[in-house]
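Q: Predict the bound structure with aspartic acid.
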Amino acid sequence: MGVKVVKFGGSSLAAAEGFRRVKEIIDADEKRRFCVPSAPGKRFSEDTKVTDLLYRCYSCLQRQLPMDEEFDRVGERYRQIASDLSLDFDVEGMLEDTRIKMLDQPTPDFCASRGEYMNGRLLAAYLGWDFVDPAEFIKFDRHGAFASEWTNETLSEELQKHERAVIPGFYGSFPNGEVHTFPRGGSDITGAVVARAVEAEVYENWTDVSGFLMADPRIVEKPKGIDVLTYRELRELSYMGATVLQEDAIFPVHHSGIPTNIRNTYDIHHPGTMIVSDGRKFPARYPITGIAGKKDFTLINIVKDMMNSELGFGRRVLQAAEELGIPFEHLPTGIDTMCVAIADHDLDKRLNQLLNRISELCQPDSIEVTRGLSLIATVGRGMVSSPGNAAKIFGALYQAGVNVRMIDQGSSELNIIVGVASADFEKATRAIYQAFVGD
Ligand code: ASP
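A: Predicted complex:
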């Protein structure tokens, strides 16, 4: 029988009601044998996530102030869950033990990790499953780099001993046993690590939305959902601003070819979005898979006659940016022009410095700067094989009266990026969506 790994985000496990749903989901499929929970998230918009409360505890400890008030708020969350579920579990014992250990090891990672640890303990008790502490089996080297192969081997061996187990997300430990966390939101990574270790047939990532949408619903009214997405498309879309899940959060499953299924805890029967390695088996419904975009870019257009025959020109432009530690996003080039698109937050008031350095190094005929630019990426594996997609994008933008300031078609043909004035961002996104998907 195949195995499914299920990861539940903090919004899915914020209160007892969420625990009941999780059990319902798990009971519906006996292949769901390993479960990775986050810490309890927000129950309502002004609520505070347990992880944030725990960071506040740490900050008290660091300033040698009592953490009692914040820790009580943490305790209340677990007490409430356990009592609402009528759980036969020693919550007070767990809280007291955790409190003492936090006083003993006042590191931000240890304190924050206790959110997942305690939620995992409660969930294991509620499901009647084994509890596996990732501090023993998920390791980082002493510089904090994730030890993927060691972890995979050790965790795989351990999980074979358990028919069903809860493994808390977000943390592991250094070689000396000291707890270390993944970056914020890192339970997604733990889920992927566990899925790889048990060679799962699918990694189900349960959250509070039904997967990815073809466009941002704040811009396009009721955009269609994406049923199948490839990992490469996911990377392109999330890089360009689509949220839900970052590709780098699920690298262990991506590299092992295990599909990830984004599901909605509040809409159990919705199939969500399936993320796969090889999109060829899943013919795309539309030539495009999704549209995403980001605002606040600056475009530097460098013009020089006979640039094409001047050896090293491009290198010198990039050298200027590199010397100032400024990364660039895109680099569309013409015969005598070269454009560099840079995110404003990277430029950080150093525009003049950069222009001066480019002038010194490259002696261009002119440099033109366009500020307030937005980039919109139209992404889709279906674009490779169907003609006329670029024409459709530019036709739609023309019809909408949007002036295109920059074009960049990725060499993979998976992605066509256009730069438009930020004032046109929403209009342009809607026009492209309309052209490919309709109403
Ligand atoms: N609880 C952690 C956070 O809030 C990790 C996670 O939820 O994935 O970032």
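A: The radius of gyration is 25 Å.
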